[in-house]
Design a protein that fits this description.
230 residues, alpha+beta, eleven-stranded mixed β-sheet, 35% strand
């Protein structure tokens, strides 16, 4: 059976829509380090695994996420393994999702976006992550208090990501409102929204199910670094 384009989402983002942000070789690529740590091999062939090892950064790590079991290449070591849930949206977006003014975030907002992501840890987020797609936010007194946006993209698909709210503003429905704002934009381009969440995060899974997301597949996640790093 042929692979679905979302079975290997990182590779199919780096090899298509986000190719301009990729670093690597013919059979393995990663995002530029100030975008995010996601990386992928085209398949599990010896050549692809060797190239995946070759693009490991001298310091730091990469994160591989895919349906197929992840093979740790020679010259690398796994520092973290987990299972994730990939969910696609098949619900209905309400006409009115919230009352808070939602604004499109720009490069000028990137320092606050990074600060908010570092505070709340919604997933890998770096200085130039905002370039991957549209990000939307809610501000109070000029300060960013919540955001959501787009990360990986493949032809016909866009990943919802970076959903986070400052701890002192949680419980107000800001995350849900922002998710729906992003979903409207994705549907407006005739694309299918999807997202990833760790399988252990049952609370988030239930919240996304209540919004209209449904599990598509379980996905393997592995963090890799060079084996010679002390």
């Amino acid at each position: 059976m042929a692979e679905h384009i979302l079975d290997r989402p990182v590779w199919n983002s780096l090899d298509t829509v986000h190719k301009r942000f990729s670093v690597g070789l013919d059979c393995a690529r990663r995002f530029e380090s100030d975008i995010n740590p996601l990386a992928a091999a085209r398949d599990e062939s010896d050549e692809s695994l060797a190239q995946l090892a070759a693009i490991l950064p001298v310091t730091g790590s990469i994160v591989v996420a895919q349906l197929a079991p992840i093979v740790c290449p020679t010259g690398a070591r796994a520092t973290f393994e987990a299972q994730g849930v990939q969910m696609t949206f098949d619900g209905t977006i309400p006409e009115v999702a919230g009352s808070h003014p939602v604004v499109r975030l720009t490069e000028a907002d990137s320092p606050e976006m990074l600060e908010l992501a570092n505070l709340t840890r919604p997933g890998p987020f770096a200085a130039r992550t905002y370039l991957l797609g549209e990000f939307w936010g809610v501000k109070q007194d000029g300060k960013l208090i919540a955001m959501a946006g787009e990360r990986m993209k493949q032809p016909g698909y866009t990943e919802l990501s970076g959903v986070c709210t400052r701890p002192d503003h949680q419980g107000k429905g800001l995350g849900r409102q922002l998710c729906y704002a992003v979903l409207r934009r994705i549907f407006g381009r005739n694309e299918i929204p999807y997202l990833h969440v760790f399988a252990s995060n049952s609370r988030a899974i239930h919240l996304y199910e209540a919004m209209g997301f449904r599990e598509r597949i379980r996905i393997n996640v592995m963090q890799l670094e060079r084996a010679d790093i002390a």
